[in-house]
Amino acid sequence: MSKVAIVTGANQGLGLGLVQRLNEIYQKNDIIYMGVRRTEAGKKALESIETIKADIRVIYIDISKEESIIAVKNTIFKQHGGIDLVIHNAAARISPDRPYKEQVKNFIDTNNMGTYYMLKHFQPLMNENGQLIVVASAFGSLIHLNSNLHKLFDIENSSLEDINTTMMNYVHDVESGREADKGWPEWINIPSKIGQVALVKIAAKEEDSNKSIFSVCPGLVDTDASRPFFDNMNEAQSPYEAAGHIIALTGNRSTALSGQLIQFGKQLPWN
Fold it and tell me: With 80 as the cut, is the pLDDT of residue 255 above it?
């Protein structure tokens, strides 16, 4: 039986690396949707893959817009009835050269609300033994957050919507210049990643089937998004190299992965 997968943010960087790696292990009847916000860029990226083994299809998706995610979900449901693998990789970038209060709303709307929308609409679409993987970061752990704020990410007693409310309140704190008084870290990527991982953990906890929902940290990857924040990229992986660690997890159908944050095959602590 053919497999169906989607990778978001698939036209460059890690997303393209993930498509390349999947293409190497999928067969001609297996389908990989390259989810992109710019279809022309997606088509160009597809042309850069030298040997096509799978049925790779470029599809438009804007993860910051729920209606766009619904449209893609409906397309996949109508054509295939379900999906075996979802790798949610798309994310907004931030710049160290602009005040974070000018960037935080788009950043959270895309990265956190986008993750929420993908979970909301693709978790029910997953086939038996399906996997939904969110690309996050090792920063998505409470150990990087002031302990006074831990209660805002209580994964045992919070809903997905509760986490959304926390993140929207965080946006307001940053935009109003109150984030330091509240104890939030200076770098807006940390609360965003913690929020993403919290969503994944809650969604996994609510899943009572043999489907796996987990997040991954790819490690340091040499991309246009990461270069502005690191002076030395000598130890960074290429997107293709980093993708290998993630795609290796797709061969593990154990539900023991569900709810975890994984880096290089190992579980990272939540707190």
Answer: no
